[in-house]
Amino acid sequence: MSHRALVIGATGIVGQNLANRLVAEGWSVYGLARRTENLPGTIMPVAADALDPESLHAALGGIVPTHVFFTTWTRRESERENCIANSAMVRNVFAALPRPHALVHASLVTGLKHYLGPFEAYARGNPPQTPFRETMPRLAVENFYYSQEDALFEAAERLGIAWTVHRPHTVIGYAIGNLMNMGTTLAAYATLCRETGLPFVFPGSPTQWESLTDVTDARQLASQILWAATSPAGRNRAFNVVNGDVFRWKWLWGELAAWFGIDAAPYPGHATSLEHMLADRGPQWTDIARRHGLREVALGQLASAWHTDADLGRPVECVTDMSLSRRLGFTGYQYTPDSFLDLFERLRAGRYIP
User: Fold this and answer.
1) For residues 132 and 112, what is the distance between their CA atoms, to the nearest angstrom?
2) What is the pTM of this model?
3) What are the extents of the domains in the chain?
4) Is 145 among the residues known to form the active site?
5) So what's the architecture of 4-168 in CATH?
């Protein structure tokens, strides 16, 4: 069977890595995004806004994918608005496909906010006991992940196609200008510390500093999505996906510091907002970028400090169980320090950090 993929959000941290993996596996890949000029030549660009049905119909008119992968989201002022906008993107894509019944499988990437709640009530109240498992019920709050899932389930039932949902923890991988990019944010922060003498302080909560946790390499996520989209065992299920190891930030922080040739500052015992620390550092970054000939002079294009604060500031332990996909045949594994260090190497090679 000839596989033809439509990746929604192909320029993002998840979409880029997935699209590249599918190309490497011999798939024909269409990459949909509002701006497609930075897509590699191996991916067929589809310039459209998933919230604009007219632009979607025009852009998708001659495209007949066998698989569609939803890897993007949009942020609004309230969770109610998030639910409306993000579920609309899913419905709009299905409605715009000229031959939707040619689809075999549809995949949706969400995340641990499925268990922790939306940004408005993030990790508050009584989140489920760790490790998070796919069998845990939905929280009794509005959550745009649930709205996206419901739109996917409705389309899959109507079209008679298979579906999967993938729930990563914090995704570490290569993407520039991404709304949620801890790895690149920490790379920019560490560079500022080395160049200006700012102490490299872990900005998160005592719970995150001390507790076991995990993350998801974008390459590991791409591997699981590919496995689920092509394996009978992966049909019609939701899967957690993390690297497969666990760590404590109090250990990993020193490993990251060493790569940049700096010392990890003593942990102060409380969260320290990275967004606040970086708020007035834009001119310093511009100076660093110009001195070293870097490609990006705007700190805001590299650092999404608000999201890193949200992830590292959680007051609860976050450990994810992925036994379900392992029992069904997915055996991928990624060593977490390499997730960060591989990314740092690529950012340096691309002249995004010195």
Assistant:
1) 8
2) 0.96
3) 4-168, 176-213+246-317+334-350
4) yes
5) 3-Layer(aba) Sandwich (3.40)
